[in-house]
Give the backbone structure.
Amino acid sequence: MPTLRKQSSTTSILILKTGIIFALGLAIGVLSVVVIQNFYPKEEEHATQNTAQQRVQKSPTGSSLSSPLEITGNVGEFQNIFKHRSTAEQYTSLYVLLSRANETELKEWWIHTQNIERESHREIAQQVIIGNLSAINPKEALQCLNDVSVFQMDRLLRTLFSEWSVFRLEEAVEIATTLPGPRRIVALQTILETRDDLSEEQQRMIARQLKGEDTYLMLVSEAKASQSLAEPQDSWNTLLNDDVANYLQTETFLTVLEAWREQIGFAVLSKIYEMPLFGIKYDLMKAVARVNPEGALDYTRGLQDQKEKESLSREIVLVWARKDPRAALAASLTFEPSSIATTLESVVALTWARTNPIEFIENIESISERPRLLSLETAFSSIARQDPKNAIEMLSSVERYVGNTSSLLTRIVNQWANRQPDSATDWVLNNFAREDPQRQMLLRGVLQRLASQDPDKAFELALAQPAPSEGYEIEFQVMQEIILYGDIEVAKKFLPRVRTKAKQSIYSSVATELVNAGQNNEALELGYDLAESNQQMYFWHVMLLWASNDPTDLYESLENLQSSDLASLAARQLISQNRFDPVLTDDQIEQARTLLTAEDEALVEQFENR
């Protein structure tokens, strides 16, 4: 039976960890120490140095080598070593081969590893070299890591600091403080796991030096949890009640859950539901469901709490539908009560549509009417990302199940326009008559996307379309796209040609960008291009933004405004804004009051007396 750990997608979150048991050191660090002790003896510590030298003088492949320097020069040794099929034999051979190499030779060997074609072999060789070089000159070993990819960095850092912390702890900690955040945490965790002989106070002090006290607390908590794993609920409570964020301990929660599930079965789902595991609660539910989704769903059928029943069953069928949507659908349709069954069917349909859209469309008759259209939109949208024309051709196969396919076509064309707006636009223009309402609907989406790529073409095409009887003209969407994500100068160039219905809204959008850019006077000037009936609302919008963004600048500009009505409107906005964000002095506010017209003065009084 699969385990939670193997099935969980969260396993990779904590790939930095080599285990959850604090008492265990890093395996590779221990191996390095053992090898150094056995194959790199010092004269004052070992009387059998000559014997060791004799052992090293012959390579594990049988080549006679008169000195370590000759070993360094023989790049072919790598190839011979990796003829061993056993990884253990490869490690052993490399340790024997390199155990008497000095610093210079090890660095030369390191350079040669760049030429090892097979990645797994290169990683083994580099790990052994870094382990040996760390025992001689760990700072140089650290410099070597500048040559490796980010994917290899953590593993080699563990090798380095497991060795370094054994022989030169203070130096290892000092250098670790200079590493960037994620690497510093890897170094800290390695040091703490390797030097489990230190007292808790010493370990905590090191963690504080490396700004990783949370890492220390996490390791302590996980060690306690592992020690009480025979009683999973005790381990669970330890993890819940420690001072470490739950998401940092996802892997450990999964380990405890696996042990707990073996004791109480799928009732562990209710334990997850009851606990305040914000951030990982649903990940843990899914991990349990992956073990046996059918069994997990059967457990929820007997639950009395309807909220718990719906919450757990949703997560279970979500997992199940990715693996076997037909079985998940069949089980969902028999669920009680029917209200939850309807929800579960929708979950299965949407999941199926996302993960295997073509298969879902081929089986659309098995989906009831209520979730059918939304899930089909999802399926066709997924297909359109890769092949929009094929998606369009497939529409006829579902027409009898949904009747009107216009919403499906809209999703396809919009998805197409996200990647190829020019092609999508041409397809719409070539396949619909000018007066066809669906053409107008589709063009609103595709021209908006085309505007970010070719604003001139998008705007000209928008102007060429007939004005709708209701709502804004198509250029509204085009101009909004240009204003928000394009060049404001391009938008200003098009402004005089914007048609009537969309005009005031578009002018206000341009004004917003100008005021946000500090071009307040230019925003005011634009307003005079509008019909007089539209100017009051436009100027109110500009003054509101100006008073919010830079009230001091607006106050200093009061005397320069073109009319007394405009000055009154500005003063009114300043007085209102200052009540919430008092930037201006009382004297300045009183001065602003003197500019109010009788109508604005009444509005201000009404506002202040609320």
